[in-house]
Amino acid sequence: MAVELKYKDITEKIIGASFEVHKFLGNGFQEVIYQRALAWELSQAGLSFAREIEQDIFIKNYRNQLVPEEQTLL
Fold it and tell me: Are 66 and 54 in contact (CB under 8 A)?
């Protein structure tokens, strides 16, 4: 049974951008380098985003700080 994603088009762009960053940079850089590279890839994919915003979102006790396309994740 296939899972239907709520924001399938945005999700596919985010995953694709993440893979592009990983393919190009590989491992070993500081987190800020990956953030900057992902920001560039997301903008190339036509997505708007905000980095390091103040919003209380917890996923398995982890505070998520990336909200794509101004969507609220509830």
Answer: no
